[in-house]
Please model this.
Amino acid sequence: MTDKPLLSVRNLSVGFPAGKGHVLAVNDVSFDIRPGELVGVVGESGSGKSVTALAVMGLLPPTAMLSGQLLFEGRDMLGLSRGQLRQLRGRQLGMIFQEPMTSLNPVFTVGDQISEAVRALGGVSRKQAADRAVELLDQVGIPSPRRRLEDYPHQMSGGMRQRVMIAIALAGSPRLLIADEPTTALDVTIQAQLLDLLNGLRERLGTAILLISHNMGVMAEVADRVVVMYASRVVEEADIFQLFDTPQHPYSEGLLGSTPDMAGTARRLITIPGAMPSPGALPPGCLFAPRCPKVVDACTKAQPPLIDLSGGQKAACIRAPKREAGVPA
Amino acid sequence: MSAPILEVENLVKHFELSSDNWFKRDRPVVRAVDKVSFTVGERETLGLVGESGCGKSTTGRLILQLIAPSAGAVRFMGTDLIAAAPQKLRAMRRDLQIIFQDPHASLNPRMRVEEIILEPLYAQGEKPSAALTNYAGDLLEKVGLSRRHAQRHPHEFSGGQRQRIGIARAIAPKPKFIICDEAVSALDVSVQAQVINLLQDLQAELGMSYLFIGHDLAVVRHIADRIAVMYLGRIVETAPKAQLYVSPRHPYTQALLASVPVSHPRLRHSRKRLRGEMPSPLNPPSGCHFHPRCPLARDRCRVEDPMLREIAPGQTVACHFAEETASPAPLSTPS
Model:
């Protein structure tokens, strides 16, 4: 794994018009993904994690206002023409979505839809595209792939459809796969199979993966590094072990504490009181301050910046370095 | 264990589908719930888990008689609900309530919160009064909302708050039993934790029993005392939770538990995943429904339905070879 990032998100902000002004769905977000790395973005509904993914894919509606940089191998994607972006999306970036039911076209066969993605890349015949479709279906673990080409999406289960979506995303052998809640709608045994599949793709093909999820367990299962988002901002970024062993932001701690675990400790769940503020009515200072158990006066004065701690860990909390020095919270 | 408040015996629900062939009389039948039996004790929480389509939600609705069972018995506090006259059933529902999964779909958008919460009491023939209005305020405070919310409409609330309104409605008639049908599944994790704690506090305070239907095994482990695992319309294993999670004996339970995401990255290991997916209940496999995916399957499994039998105190398993599944990780050896 080289240290040169494949994708560099730099100070990305995304605003949407609302009433007379606009609201920021993503606010000053920065992180890197290196080749072959699996980076998770975790957060609750409305944290801005999906909008971040859509921004990277260039799939936001025209009303969205973007600022910052999206560097793919050093090239800023925000400056690209539609045609250049299209090229990049086919061959370098692939994306899978949460809803395998609605992302496939119900009136075309699975084979047609995969072949379409293959042929869009150019330079292949119909026959070659069909062969490639078989190969892709095999790669995502669909048994007897040649027979399944003739199936329509409704003939497949949710897990199978998500595999087809992954096959389409892999058509151009992308170097980065963006997966937005790919297992959320699926049962736990199917989720486990798909997480294994994503892990396998990374190992066999060296595909870097940006995995968006609200589920800390999914992160624990496959992520190398995690970006925690809250109310449009990054509040913490850490190696997966650092995040679980020494979370530095009280929100990360709260998320971990409120997830029931299988260890079966009969503890009462730690809760985060209240709910995430709506993007139109953000509190002053740290956005998490109104719900934070460790809030001090200074928290409501200014938004704490994301600061570097040891070992590549970053947190946007004015108290973060204290805990690192071994001072109990 | 305390005396059962709810006894479900050989509960069956067959849904008839329309036939593909207009000339054929026999219509295909989905066996959504296939001879399900269990009991729930006083102040006990029974977790009912399984994947989508296994029949767990249908079971909940059958108990409440929201849909009519095809066969079987549901005895609640000694009364058979299936045979009960409509008036009697309505009166029993005072003690038997439900909380639904989707807090957006289960509250009438045209009603004010107070009307929503008091609806179960109005259904029992009570009339609006100042005392009831005051009671609605008390209920709102009990579930962590404020009295002043009573005059608002559901759309003014977040998902977590709406679920609290659904809970206030369920506890309004002071029931002895609540069916929680995926009651926390639609909520974000920090809000989910708040609602789980609320359900536990209310149970301790009001002495209710819960049937907690869910697919998230970590959540169910957290809240349930005893757990029943369903697969394709049948219960395959029941056990006190400590036993179920530590020494599951049905190969399906074992596979299900192995699929749950780990709680710490250190626990990552490559586990034997369950092959394939749950077959359609329209055409379930012969014999043991699980045999096509089971690493232990043999000829007998293809022909003979395994009965639930007690394999350890309090633990029942529907597997012919449950004696062989006690080793710590039978699924880690490739078959």
